[in-house]
Specification:
single chain, 66 residues, mainly alpha, 2 domains
Length: 66
């Protein structure tokens, strides 16, 4: 799906953006009042959206000649 040169960038860039956003969220006072069940639901929803986005990109990319 990705060439060997772009694969590390495709992993590292979203990871850094996600960590920056999570760090920003953790420094806000309202983060302490979040319940565990809400956090699990948020993580699950984010993973589902991520899988759907990857599937959409794979669909738009077209068939592979393997």
């Amino acid at each position: 799906m990705f060439s060997r040169k772009t694969l590390p960038a495709a992993i590292v860039v979203p990871l850094i953006i996600g960590l920056v956003g999570l760090t920003n969220l953790m420094h806000q006072p309202r983060f302490a009042s979040i319940r565990n069940v809400d956090l699990v639901q948020l993580l699950g929803s984010g993973m589902c959206f991520g899988v759907a986005l990857v599937a959409l990109f794979a669909l738009l990319r077209g068939p592979h000649n393997a």
